[in-house]
Amino acid sequence: MKSFVRWPVGRFSLLLPLLLVAGCASFYPDSQQQQPGPAVPSQAPRTTGIEPRSAAEHRQLAAMFGGEYKAPAAEQYLNQVLAKLAAADETQSPAYRVTILNSPVVNAFALPSGSIYVTRGLLALANDTSEVAAVMAHEIGHVTARHAMQREEAMKTSELRSKVTRQLQSRERSEEVTAFDKLSLASFTRQQEFDADLISVRNLGRAGYDPYGASRFLQALSRSTAMRAALLGNRSSDQQPDIMSTHPSTQERIERARLAARQFGAPGVGTTDRDAYLAAINGIDFGDDPAEGIVRGRKFAHGKLGFSFIAPEGFALENTAQAVLGVAAGGSEALRLDNVRLNDEPTLEAYLATGWVAGLDQSSIQAQTINGLAAATAVATENDWKFRVAAVRMGPEVFRIIFASKALTPEVDRKFLASINTFRRIPPQEANALKSLRLAVIPAQQGDTIAALTQRMAIADRGLDVFLLINGLQRGATIEPGKRYKIVVE
């Protein structure tokens, strides 16, 4: 949840999107006007005063993912890996450099300038050097294959064909062409992902890394996606890909990556450099940044905005860039917490009546005070869902809490209202005391078990699942004494 999110007034639909994405992107933001710098000698080379495109892209991308994350040991190690990958690349490559992004989301990007971006969430998921090298080699593959330019040209061609069709042919024919173009673009993008995976595996093998690192990381990615989907009550569709998806199904990519790796030999070929990688990421932050809000069980607290909120018993929370989402009772109950800044400063009762929640019962609007803050609540009905809605003002911000239930019985409504009444302003000292969790790499001792190591995790909910995921283990696995494992600590 960012500092504040501007949401247009409109119909509210209960959607619980997954934040985790597994793909690549290219950004072309507008450059910002530069501030005047100090005077320079007359003989110095003249500059245009226009920010280089690569610098604008870097700034925009970093801003979208929480800014740069400073982890010198990890950054230095990743740059050493990039140097090996660049030397093994079939094409002439730019000098690649890595930037770690301050986001728990698992993602990676590349810019044509040679900038590679990985999130700290991705570093936490990867288990050895060959796995993180596979991700970076995949991004290098997009750059060397000029995929961004090809995609841009394909989109331009599609738009032009659609415009011509709309002018010269019938509406039905235009819709057919548009649907065909969407399918073609989706297929085109999926093929680019396959191509980049193949380049990745080849570069891994030539650089001396385990080429099976690519398929292992894709498997971990698939597990991570399924776990987060289950957390929010959504059944993972990873094994049932939508034909219009912009990326191929992870399982299909896993099988193709394994097949490509077999060209280098059976599993076990190449180096994984597991210990060196774990040493490089030891101590990095894990999960949410307190400045953007952190989830601790049912409690959500936001250091920058200075508030906290506790969800009802049984709710699992997920902090996204747009809102805090929650689900309970197998998906039959849900919540959303976000915020807006109201310039005209209407009363909260008037704001609830503006129509941003469909089906609002105007007669149910009630003004009240919650922990010293002005607030208003109401109920709404839309299709099969019933909603308990609240707006709480804190300075210029208005926080919106929306609970949804398939059956808003008096007991359920009291539960929702009790949760709404936990919303409070937190003092600066409490906000400053919010700390990120972090990864700790520890050697297993004789007699250690998965259960014993899980008990050392500072994660109340699904600690076992998180431990297994970040260590690439399955249930029933055996802990090896002396081997290093990742745990999450305060």
Task: Report on this structure.
- This protein is α+β, with helices and mostly antiparallel strands and 490 residues long.
- It folds into three domains: 65-286, no CATH class; 290-432, Mog1/PsbP, alpha/beta/alpha sandwich (Protein Transport Mog1p, Chain A, 3-Layer(aba) Sandwich); 437-489, LysM domain (Membrane-bound Lytic Murein Transglycosylase D, Chain A).
- 37% of the residues lie in helices and 19% in strands.
- It contains 14 helices and 17 strands.
- A seven-stranded antiparallel sheet has the order 8-9-10-14-13-12-11. Strands 5-6-7-15 form a four-stranded antiparallel sheet, with no helix packed on it.
- Helix 6 (171-206) runs parallel beside helix 8.
- The longest helix has 36 residues, at 171-206.
- The radius of gyration is 25 Å and the shape is elongated.
Labels describing this entry:
Protein Transport Mog1p, Chain A; elongated; seven-stranded antiparallel β-sheet; Membrane-bound Lytic Murein Transglycosylase D, Chain A; alpha+beta; 3 domains; 490 residues
The mean pLDDT is: 78
Overall morphology: elongated
Q: Regarding quaternary structure, how should these chains be classified?
A: single chain
Q: Report helical residue fraction.
A: 25-40%
Integer-rounded radius of gyration:
25 Å
- Distance N terminus to C terminus? 21 Å
Beta-strand proportion: 15-25%
Low-confidence stretches: 3-51, 153-162, 164-168, 170-188, 235-246
Please give the order of strands in the largest beta sheet.
Answer: 8-9-10-14-13-12-11
Strand pairing plus helix content: what structural class? alpha+beta
Task: Report the sheet with the most strands, covering strand number, pairing sense and barrel closure.
Answer: 7 strands, antiparallel
Number of helices: 14
The count of β-strands is 17
User: What is the count of structural domains?
Assistant: 3
